[in-house]
């Protein structure tokens, strides 16, 4: 009789345990996103105040956004900082699952879901050797001695890229692997200008003490900026799952979370423009 009771109690505990597991998994499935059965692998690259490393620690908007996503989803994430070119190669191959900074393109649409998360406008950073003579794009293009820089693989918007293409045709564009290299080249006179977002150039100019050596120009006054995306791989995320991630980002914008994060790094008026996506 005692053995029978023990078996009965064991069966009850097993059933309760299974029900608990089902309940927990049901909560996870009903959450804002589906976390999946393995950690989500996130690729980050240095981009001014958007993402940087300081004393071995992650800093910037993207780091803060990831912390908020962790709180809201309960998902496990593995984050890795890597060069820009490698990040896109790893996204395409499925080595990583997502990144928080990307621009949509027909090529990327083949393998990635684009979740709009920020709008940013590119300005032009003009170096010391061109400050006196360059007041606009026409001045720069007319001076054949001046060289322009860009990060390999970057896109800047239709109007600005058209000007860049013209300079490329004349062999006056020098490509680099990341933004930090562009600023070093500008400082040492190897290039005379390049496109950059305010939350990028302000950080680098300050760190290099170049405030008096550069000017900032707007070569596309009517351009409202380009929409930046959180990019999810189609290998891991279905279209329905991508819609849930989009709803999560939209909620973070609607409840003021994104603005609270942005104003840690830019002015409130700039943050409002960045939320226009």
TrEMBL record:
UniProt KW Signal keyword:
yes
Gene3D superfamilies per the UniProt record, alphabetical? Periplasmic binding protein-like II (3.40.190.10)
Pfam families per UniProt: SBP_bac_3
Signal peptide: which range, if any?
Answer: 1-30
**UniProt keywords, alphabetically:** Signal
Q: Where is the Solute-binding protein family 3/N-terminal domain?
A: 44-269
Top-rank taxon, per record: Bacteria
> PANTHER family annotated for this entry?
AMINO-ACID-BINDING PROTEIN YXEM-RELATED, MEMBRANE-BOUND LYTIC MUREIN TRANSGLYCOSYLASE F
Q: What is this protein called?
A: Polar amino acid transport system substrate-binding protein
């Amino acid at each position: 009789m005692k053995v029978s009771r023990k078996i009965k109690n064991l069966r009850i505990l097993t059933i309760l345990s299974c029900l608990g597991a089902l309940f927990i998994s049901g909560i996870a499935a009903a959450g804002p996103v589906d976390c999946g059965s393995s950690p989500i692998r996130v690729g980050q690259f240095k981009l001014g105040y958007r993402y940087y490393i300081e004393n071995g620690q992650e800093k910037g908007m993207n780091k803060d956004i990831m912390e908020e996503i962790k709180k809201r989803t309960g998902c496990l994430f593995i984050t890795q900082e890597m060069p820009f070119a490698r990040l896109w190669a790893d996204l395409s191959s499925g080595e990583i699952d997502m990144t928080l900074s990307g621009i949509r393109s027909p090529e990327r649409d083949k393998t990635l879901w684009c979740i709009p998360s920020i709008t940013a406008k590119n300005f032009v950073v003009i170096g010391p050797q061109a400050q006196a003579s360059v007041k606009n794009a026409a001045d720069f293009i007319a001076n054949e001695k001046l060289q322009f820089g860009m990060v390999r693989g970057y896109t800047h918007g239709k109007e600005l890229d058209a000007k860049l293409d013209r300079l490329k045709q004349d062999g006056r564009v020098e490509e680099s692997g990341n933004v930090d290299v562009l600023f070093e080249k500008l400082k040492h006179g190897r290039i005379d200008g390049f496109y950059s977002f305010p939350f990028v150039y302000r950080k680098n100019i300050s760190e290099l003490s170049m405030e008096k050596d550069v000017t900032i120009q707007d070569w596309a006054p009517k351009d409202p900026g380009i929409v930046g995306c959180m990019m999810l791989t189609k290998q891991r995320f279905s279209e329905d799952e991508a819609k849930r991630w989009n709803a999560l980002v939209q909620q973070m914008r609607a409840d003021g979370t994104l603005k609270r994060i942005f104003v840690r790094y830019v002015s409130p008026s700039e943050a409002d423009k960045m939320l226009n996506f």
